[in-house]
Amino acid sequence: MLSVFDQGPPAPCPTPFNMAGYVLGAADATPEKLALAVVGETGAERWTYAALEAAVRGTATGLLQAGLRPGDRVLMRLGNRVEFPIAYLAAITAGLIPVPSSAALTAREVANMLPELAPSVILRAPDVACPETDLPVIGAEALAAMRALPPAGYDMGDPNRPAYIVYTSGTSGKPRGVVHAHRAIWARRMMHDGWYGIGPEDRLLHAGAFNWTYTLGTGLMDPWSVGATALIPAEGTDLAALPGLMEAHGATIFAAAPGVYRKILNAGTARAIPSLRHGLSAGEKLPASIEDNWQKATGTPIYEAYGMSECSTFISGAPSRPATRGTLGRPQPGRRIAILGTDGPVPLGTEGTIAVHRSDPGLMLGYLGAEDETRDRMRGDWFITGDQGVMDDSSSITYLARNDDMMNAGGYRVSPLEVEQALSDIPGITQIAVTDIAVRSDARLIMAFYTGPAPLSEAELARLASERLAGYKTPRGFFHVDALPQNPNGKLQRRALAQIYEALHDPS
Asked: Beta 278-281 vs 302-308: how paired, if at all?
């Protein structure tokens, strides 16, 4: 038998459709129910469904009154506050195309996005980096004032039209805008039972920032889509305090990247919480040691999911069907997933590339301004993830390795080429290469290796890198070497950098 999972397609997305209208549908049925609580050690900011929808639709009116029109792109440079999801959903309500971006990006990184993105406006908080530009800017105070305006209607239309754009590191080294359709939120329904096990009575606490796409989807929009309550830690909350917040606010599901689980465990604050049923993990591979230690400390399992910016998550374990030990889990019902070789799906038990069928409603529309790169990611009817895996006769998929040099920094996929290009013109560096290194069994960090006349100050290199790159892309170590590893044809061998790191740290 071939390595193909196909149990039939999901229900088709309704038409006409608006993503924000679908997300906030519970406002009609349960207007006074708690939709969002921003929780901290000193209290909570609470939003009912009615208040949230009014703020979103009022802001949509304000954006339209500012002269924006459906189809315009809106770059979001807002901080880790509730204004972020309100503005995001407001733009989608009005038929605009929001582009959420991490507040950690530097002004230089944002400037590199602008020519291709061509936004019509920038939504900006004063404490978030942004380059000088002639583009119109709407500040955080002006956005907040829009919430009181009369509600805009939902801009209904083809579910296949663009809804939002997120940026991810491309294999070319240039961050790529990933264009998603309004139907992407409808596709996430396959995750509700296939990963979350979520219902209207749940209270999901997500450890991430508002402006991380993992939080926007798993922490906010998906709970709201089923009429549940979203709990988000207030800005600056110590990760060690999260178990106490879960207990105080009756969290039933906890979602985070593996690194957050590790930090809570290391802090010694993980414990049994009466309301908590289980945890969710995504963004990077969940080490078995973290999974086991969390289960031991809290008595609750963690369900892992595998996905990417281009298609969210589509392979996972779930309360109704836990993953077989050592595997990622199974494709979610409604997905069509295959393990491909050069000639198509390979036999069960054979290694190949994990692929998603191009008909998946959650698959991106394409890379912005990069039609060739979009085509390169397709192989016939399949979108190629770039990751290797193997499928067994129960359809469980074991992750093997990446077949490219992409790095994973705390849940963010980062291209080494992007980091290298940002640092290559530092005086004193002749060549530079980066990769992620396993510094422990459950942690990988980006490290840089460079050649030059003499070693440079590591503190100065870190300072220069922080001016050019978001914190999660910045190398955690810089190592001067005589030469970078190359093959006989002169091609850089990044995987050999790990051997150099190990040799430099050999106590003998």
From this structure: parallel
